[in-house]
């Protein structure tokens, strides 16, 4: 089996829904990160053997294989193919898994994995075109909205509304501190847009984090999914626009091209979980990937667990015993946003840069997914062993 390494990783700033990045077509936004990967690595685009991109709402400007379209827009040779996949919120993390599996098996040597979602231009569920779940599916499982799943998780794990809101406040505080310290500067690429006055402006920062987010402010928000519920817009992830990608290679190929491998893909896992609770998969996915890696949870230095709703990271910490000081240290989707198809490689990009910044070794990422699934990935910083 070939050793799979990550050479580069970049993302766009994440835009609020109907914010500055809503002016950009998603296929064009994704092309910018593809071009930046090639530019930063110094390789020629013809070396890329496949482009795999995650995208959840594959309709409109995100239809017709957005991975291929973005690669062509980026100026890649026509010989470089592209494929778009949907594993719900973990789509681009699954893209990393498929890419690394192709490299590990010896089928390919250089693959881009990434993702995109413009939740402004292509609304969530618009690909469903007004249809509902199959009656046969509903006879087997209780199919409910993710927000109601989050409500049930909060109840099952005894999480109070104040605990959820407190977690959300910390997400904003951490994100704002990370922005203040410039922690995201290396991983993000500037995007040029035209504002409402027709002036060109450059977007460099994530739009989601809100100064002044307090328990008092969040307490005023109404329940979003059920009467007297605990889930509000304040303790749920933000709908967002963004794109991200990573460049993976076999270690042998990277060294032959004169490139420095930054991270090793140590292990991957994917699990199915209860489609009604829906968001509980990160726990079994975490333990499965640790087993595959031959590591314990105490070996991991930093964790990224997607903040789809505040109950997800909170119940994950209860189940695993991981301290909050190791989890989502620069904030998460509650503050920074959740551009569905882009989130997997967005989190991986942030995890890589934070491991490098802090001089730590192992990172574990887990993302819950619609219909009850989850991916988990362990990466290892290679400078540690040199």
Automatic annotation (TrEMBL):
Source superkingdom: Bacteria
Stretches assigned to the Thiolase N-terminal domain: 4-251
Catalytic residues of the enzyme: 89 (acyl-thioester intermediate), 338 (proton acceptor), 368 (proton acceptor)
Classification lineage: Bacteria, Bacillati, Bacillota, Bacilli, Bacillales
Protein name: Acetyl-CoA acetyltransferase
Entry-linked SUPFAM superfamilies: Thiolase-like
Coiled-coil positions: none
UniProt domain Thiolase C-terminal: residue ranges: 261-381
């Amino acid at each position: 089996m070939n050793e799979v390494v990550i050479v580069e990783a970049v993302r766009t700033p994440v835009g609020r829904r109907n914010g500055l990045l809503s002016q950009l077509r998603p296929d064009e936004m994704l092309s910018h990160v593809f071009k930046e990967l090639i530019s930063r690595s110094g390789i020629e685009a013809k070396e890329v053997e496949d482009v795999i991109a995650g995208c959840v709402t594959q309709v409109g400007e995100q239809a017709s294989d957005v991975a291929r379209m973005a690669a062509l827009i980026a100026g890649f040779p026509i010989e470089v193919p592209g494929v778009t996949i949907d594993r719900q919120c973990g789509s681009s993390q699954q893209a990393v898994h498929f890419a690394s599996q192709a490299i590990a098996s010896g089928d390919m040597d250089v693959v881009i994995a990434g993702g995109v979602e413009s939740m402004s231009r292509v609304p969530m569920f618009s690909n469903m075109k007004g249809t509902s779940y199959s009656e046969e599916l509903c006879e087997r499982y209780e199919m409910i909205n993710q927000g109601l799943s989050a409500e049930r998780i909060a109840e099952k794990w005894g999480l109070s509304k104040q605990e959820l809101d407190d977690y959300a406040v910390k997400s904003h505080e951490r994100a704002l501190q990370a922005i203040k310290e410039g922690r995201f500067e290396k991983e993000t690429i500037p995007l040029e847009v035209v504002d409402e006055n027709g002036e060109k402006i450059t977007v460099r920062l994530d739009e989601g984090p809100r100064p002044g987010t307090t328990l008092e402010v969040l307490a005023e928000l109404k329940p979003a999914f059920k009467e007297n519920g605990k889930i509000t817009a304040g303790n749920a992830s933000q709908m967002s626009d963004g794109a991200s990608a990573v460049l993976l290679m076999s270690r042998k190929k990277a060294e032959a091209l004169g490139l420095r491998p930054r991270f090793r893909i140590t292990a991957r896992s994917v699990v199915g979980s209860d489609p009604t609770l829906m968001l509980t998969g990160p726990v079994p996915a975490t333990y499965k990937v640790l087993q595959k890696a031959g590591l314990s949870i105490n070996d991991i230095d930093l964790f990224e667990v997607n903040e789809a709703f505040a109950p997800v990271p909170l119940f994950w910490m209860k189940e695993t015993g991981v301290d909050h000081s190791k989890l989502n240290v620069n904030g998460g989707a509650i503050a920074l946003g959740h551009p569905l198809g882009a989130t997997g490689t967005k989190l991986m990009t942030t995890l890589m840069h934070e491991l490098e910044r802090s001089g730590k070794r192992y990172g574990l990422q887990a993302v819950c997914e619609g219909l009850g699934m989850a991916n988990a990935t362990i990466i290892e910083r290679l400078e540690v062993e040199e």
